[in-house]
Amino acid sequence: MMENVEVIALAVIGLAALISSAWVLRARSLVDRAVGLDVTVAVLVNGLAVFAALSDDDVFLELILLTVVLSFLGTVAVSRFIQRRGE
Amino acid sequence: MSILDVVSAFLFLVGAAFTLISAIGLHRMPDTFRRLHVATKPATFSIACTFVAAAIQLGDRAEASILVVALVLQFITAPVAAHLLGYSVEGESPTPRSDVSEGEPDQSGNDPTTPSS
After folding, report:
1. Residue A36 is part of which domain span?
2. What is the ipTM of this complex?
3. What gap in Å lies between CA A6 and CA A9, rounded to an integer?
4. For A45, which of B35, B47, B53 is closest by C-beta distance?
5. Does B114 fall in a domain?
6. Mind telling me how many Å the CA of B99 is from chain A's nearest CA?
7. For A16, nearest residue in chain B (alpha carbons)
8. Which of A6, A12, A28, A35 to mutate to test binding with chain B, by most B CBs within 10 Å of its CB?
9. Looking at the 3D structure of chain B, how many domains does it have?
């Protein structure tokens, strides 16, 4: 029962990952692309959490922590780059 | 199947649904600022639901505490990242809202939608 629910949730999250990756490819400006990458990383973190519960493995939890921190640092770096591009 | 299993199954499904909503919202929103809204609020809510469900399902204090730390980190960093991205929008939104386009000037006296760079 629990496994079925987790697999269904993983399937929905995989569909969301496809849709947000399509947005990253389709976006017309750099800010839109950064927003799309932000959503894609959020989708990835969701999938990792569901997979951690499904596989009952510790490794995915540290992976989640690292992904959250790296996504924040990446977004900050991209936004500083966009703001200073014209200088 | 205990009541905790029911709660965590419900939270898994709600989190997955909100993840899908935030991915679809990227394509549906007409404007970069509304896309930023969709990138922070539903995404953070879905992460909260999924993490709580995973913490219930893992059922170990050491593992649940890592999830709590990651959740607090996400709640702190998501608005900051969206705020920084909002500052770097250079007047490229196709449908500017007349009530916010005048805007409060930021502390350096610049219009926030057009950074002087």
Report:
1. 2-85
2. 0.90
3. 5
4. B47
5. no
6. 22
7. B20
8. A35
9. 1
Domain containing residue B23: 3-88
Residue B61's closest chain A neighbor by CA? Answer: A58
Angle at Cα A42 formed by Cα A39 and Cα A45, nearest 5°?
A: 155
Which chain B residues touch A22 with a CB distance below 8 Å? 27
Kindly report the length of chain A: 87
Residues in chain B within 8 Å Cβ distance of A86: 117
Q: How far is A77 from chain B (nearest CA, A)?
A: 10
CA B73/CA A62 separation, integer angstroms: 13
Specify if B96 maps to a domain.
no
What pLDDT was estimated at residue B116?
46
Query: Which among B29, B47, B20 has a CA at the least distance from the CA of B93?
Result: B29
Residue B61 lies in a domain: yes
Model pTM greater than 0.80? yes
pLDDT tens for residues B66-105?
999 999 999 999 999 998 988 888 655 444 454 444 444 4
Tell me whether residue B95 is in a domain.
Answer: no
